[in-house]
Design brief:
heterodimer; A: seven-stranded mixed beta sheet; four-stranded antiparallel beta sheet; B: about 120 residues; seven-stranded mixed beta sheet; 11 strands
Chain lengths: ~110, ~120
C-alpha cells in the first residue's frame, strides 16, 4: 500500500497570497498517478489536478500541480476566499487507492 | 455530462448488511477505460477507498474490508451495487460513488450519510 503524508496540516493565509501544499508518498507513484482534490463542508471532493500536473477541466489557472516519483506539490497562486477548505492528495497507481490525511486551508 | 447518485438506507443496525446502489448517467460501463469507485468518509476524517469496478469486468476491493465487501454492476441499468456485510458503528460515514476515468476518480456523487446504530 502507498501511504500518502500531507503537510502542513493547516494553513492560515490571506487572500492573494501563494501557498504550496506537499504530498509525500511511501513508494514511487507509478505514472505519476497522483491527484489533488478540494473539499468544502458538506460537499464531495472536487478534482483539481490529475497525473501529478494536469489541471482538470474548468479548474482556474491559479492551481498548479507538480512533482513526480514520491514528492508532489499543489501550488495555489493568488488565493481567493472560495479556496478555503481541505485539500487531499490521492494515488490511483496501485490498489488500494489511498488518500492523504488532508491539508486545511483557512483564508484570513 | 456525467452524474452519479447513490441510494440506500441512512440507518442500519450493527451486524446488518448495507446495500448501496450507484445510479449513473453520461457514460457506460460497457465502454473501455470506464469505471465506478466507492469511497467513504467518516466524520472529520479523510476519504477511504472501498472498491472499484472497471469496464473490463475486473473489480477491486479494499484489503481491509475484503471479507465483507462486494461490488456488482448492472450495465443495462447503469448501476453499480455495493454491499458491506456485518456493519459496525465504525462504518458510520458518508458514502460516495465516483466515475472512473481510467483509474482516476474524477466525478463524485453528492454522498449519502450512513449511520450504524441499534
Amino acid at each position: 500500500e502507498i501511504v500518502l503524508t500531507q503537510s502542513p496540516g493547516t494553513l492560515s493565509v490571506s487572500p492573494g497570497e501563494r501557498v504550496t501544499l506537499s504530498c509525500r508518498a511511501s513508494h514511487i507513484v507509478g505514472n505519476n498517478y497522483l491527484g489533488w482534490y478540494h473539499q468544502t463542508p458538506g460537499q464531495a471532493p472536487r478534482l483539481l489536478v490529475f497525473n501529478g500536473n494536469n489541471k482538470d477541466s474548468g479548474i482556474p489557472d491559479r492551481f498548479r500541480g507538480g512533482g513526480s516519483g514520491t514528492d508532489f506539490t499543489l501550488t495555489i497562486s493568488g488565493l481567493e476566499p472560495e479556496d478555503s477548505g481541505i485539500y487531499y492528495c490521492s494515488q490511483y497507481a496501485l490498489a488500494p487507492w489511498t488518500f492523504g490525511q488532508g491539508t486545511k486551508v483557512e483564508i484570513k | 455530462q456525467i452524474t452519479l447518485k447513490e441510494s440506500g438506507p441512512t440507518l442500519v443496525k450493527p451486524t446488518q448488511t448495507l446495500t448501496l446502489t450507484c445510479s449513473f448517467s453520461g457514460f457506460s460501463l460497457s465502454s473501455p477505460a470506464e469505471g465506478v469507485g466507492w469511497i467513504r468518509q467518516p466524520p472529520a476524517k479523510a476519504p477511504e477507498w472501498l472498491a472499484f469496478m472497471y469496464s473490463d469486468g475486473n473489480d477491486y476491493a479494499s484489503p481491509y474490508l475484503k471479507n465483507r465487501i462486494t461490488v456488482a454492476k448492472d450495465t443495462s441499468r447503469n448501476q453499480v451495487v455495493l454491499t458491506l456485510a456485518n456493519m459496525d458503528p465504525g462504518d458510520t460515514a458518508t458514502y460516495y460513488c465516483a466515475h472512473g476515468r481510467g483509474w482516476l476518480l474524477d466525478i463524485w456523487s453528492q454522498g449519502t450519510t450512513v449511520t450504524v446504530s441499534s
